[in-house]
Amino acid sequence: MYRYTEFDESFLRARNAQFRAQVARRLSGELTEDEFKPLRLMNGLYLQLHAYMLRVAIPYGTLNSAQMRALARVARQWDKGYGHFTTRQNIQFNWPKLEDVPDILDAFAEVGLHAIQTSGNTVRNVTADHFAGAAADEIADPRPVAELIRQWSTDHPEFQFLPRKFKIAVTGSPNDRAVTAAHDIGLRLVAREGEIGYQVLVGGGLGRTPMIGKVLAEFLPEADLLPYIEAIVAVYNLIGRRDNKYKARIKITLHETGLDEIKRLVEEEFIPRRAAFKGVDQRLLAEIRGHFAPPEFIKGDNGAPPLSPALRAFIDSNVTAHRHADYAIVTVSMKSHGATPGDATAAQMEVLADLAETYGHDELRISHEQNAILPHIPRAALPDLYQRLKAVGLATANIGKISDIIACPGMDYCALATARSIPIAQEIATHFRDIGLEEEIGALKIKISGCINACGHHHVGHIGILGLDRAGVENYQITLGGDHTEAAAIGERAGPGFSADALIPALERLLRAYLTLRDGVDEPFITTYRRLGLGPFKAALYPQEGAQDVAA
Amino acid sequence: MSRDYSKILTANDLRLGDVVYWAADQRWARGITDAVVFADSATAEAALAAAFAQSDLVVGPYLVDAITTETGPAPAHFREAFRMRGPSNYPHGKQEQAQG
Q1: Which residues pair with residue A200 across a beta bridge?
Q2: Which chain A residues touch B79 with a CB distance below 8 Å?
Q3: CA trace torsion A158, A163, A169, A170 (10° rounding)
Q4: Are A437 and A431 in contact (CB under 8 A)?
Q5: Residue A25 to residues A37, A54, A108, A115, B40: CA-CA distances in angstroms?
Q6: How close does chain B come to A419, measured CA to CA in Å?
Q7: Average pLDDT over residues B40-56
Q8: Residues 6+ apart with CB under 8 A from A524
Q9: How far apart are CA A145 and CA A142, in angstroms?
Q10: Which of B55, B76, B92 sits opposite A95 (nearest CB)?
Q11: Integer angstrom CA distances of residue A119 from A23, A105, A242
């Protein structure tokens, strides 16, 4: 994986020293909050309901063990012993003191991590398939390009004050695990007659106006990728709306301007920008690619280890096919029943770091689904690995099931939230386990957001839950039929919202209806929904309404 | 029919980010029970303006609706109730401080 050069290190040292001085001036009263706020946001420091929050980028979700240990150290030394992994492959610390933040950032700089551009109207942390470089279904590793975009976008002088934030995601696999269609730019690596190129999607996004990205280029040669991205961002920077925050994302620019006109403008802008790059991007990409050479995989013992029922269940649920037959990709659930989705304690982080170092070629990933990944684990090591995960509460076999929920921090922490998300996720997970339906329901994506900004991706959940404030009471709207994959779709609102107390019984009615309606045990919820549409599920959610219709 | 005016002044502490309330003794208190309840908008707005001038102590002051209970002022809205208590997933924030 990418190692910082001397240039990277000195840039980060200088940036941290600058922020340390800014914090000192704020604390001494030399800077007002109005003056300081944009400076702290440029360095990932928010003020939330109860405390400051520091958001640190995990570029394209890739970490080594030293970096994971640094997260643990910060959690233990300067926070409350845990961190929260987010849907943008970042980590958030919920309780830092302002005066400690410069020391925290220096601790991160030691291992090549930073919080730059994790806020503000800039290009944010570039996200990628969390199985990158390991997945059996991958065309090529998307991370070299993600790293190239990270270097290009970090402190890019032209793009520090965009109309609004700008998110880019990359996948190297036709099975899209990076939700590329819900990003300002989504890149899908494709191979055509032996040549690598990119399908470029533009204008996807969730939030108050959810939209699926549209194809701007069907096959862009790799050599053109960076100038083409720069052309898109430059066009957006000039014509994106700055008069209305809610209409400022590129999805609205695209919607109002039209795909053909945006395409014309981008292609016009591309020509001089392509020429100005003079190949430097390709030389840099070649250099970066060297950092992402696959590890030297070792041929394993072909004898299958004896599996306990618990280990078999863990493997069935949490293990994905690796590009090397003797290896496995292990997804470590950060969603044990009743826990906060995406939270890990310092002790858990340290065990993950140890396991990556001992068994996994020193690599870890964080997924947008708020789980950790050990991408390169020899299959023969799975029994030992499972035991060590189990000892720290990280062996929950629930990946892709009802308790593997995405949930934003919601009103337990976030200043923008209109309702809580975390207790809803906790209750769903424990309720369906306790009534014994989790395994029977099988594959299901529930995604919960505590406000319309949709950090919890509710629009693309098979079942999406949106928390709102209705006349001073928390209220939860349900959407159905969303899809976060290559077949991305925005869910359909089922009807009026539910109070927190009524929500779990409503979900139980919905899912019991699914169990009755499905065409055999192998038909997942989303397939049944697509086959039958909203009608029968709406009837299950609102039985009173159905009774009234019949009576009428 | 207009409701009786009842607001408290709150902000976050500059250094810790902790929730604070403007108290009767002209200081920022950590607990809502010490908060002064404003019964008219002129006094409340004057206090808010004064709070903005205390940028070296607090961040983002604002007025919120309050109700009066047996134990003193309490927030009228659930958002402020969460700020007063702390998050629901861990015993952190003010509930942790209350436990000592």
Answers
A1: A187, A217
A2: 49, 411, 469
A3: -40
A4: no
A5: 12, 19, 22, 20, 36
A6: 8
A7: 96
A8: A442, A443, A444
A9: 6
A10: B92
A11: 17, 15, 17
Closest to A315 measured CA to CA, from A298, A334, A335, A329: A329
B49: which strand partners?
none
Give the pLDDT confidence score for residue A302 in this predicted structure: 59
Which of B15, B79, B58, B20 has its CA nearest to residue A95? B15
Q: What is the mean pLDDT of each run of 10 residues along chain A (552 residues)?
A: 91 97 97 96 97 98 98 98 98 98 98 96 97 97 98 96 98 98 98 95 97 98 97 98 97 98 98 95 96 92 76 97 96 98 98 98 98 97 97 98 98 98 98 98 98 97 98 97 97 98 98 98 98 98 72 46
Q: Tell me the pairing of strands A82-85 and A90-93.
A: antiparallel
Nearest CB to A33; choose among B19, B59, B94:
B59
Identify whether the C-beta of residue B56 lies closer than 8 Å to the C-beta of residue B13.
no
Q: Hey, what are A452's tokens? A: 């319309």
Is some CB atom of chain A closer than 8 A to the CB atom of B97?
A: no
pLDDT of residue B2: 45
Q: What are phi and psi of A97, to 5 degrees?
A: -90, 145
pTM greater than 0.90: yes
CA angle A84, A89, A90 (to 5 degrees): 50
* A534: its two tokens: 């909203």
User: Given this model, what pLDDT does residue A508 score?
Assistant: 98
Quote the tokens at residue A376. Answer: 């390169």
Contact A27 B93 (CB under 8 A): no
Please report, rounded to a whole number, the percentage of residues in chain B having pLDDT higher than 90: 87
The CA distance from B45 to B26, in Å, is 15
CB A215 within 8 A of CB A200: yes
Distance CA A177, CA A457 (A): 13
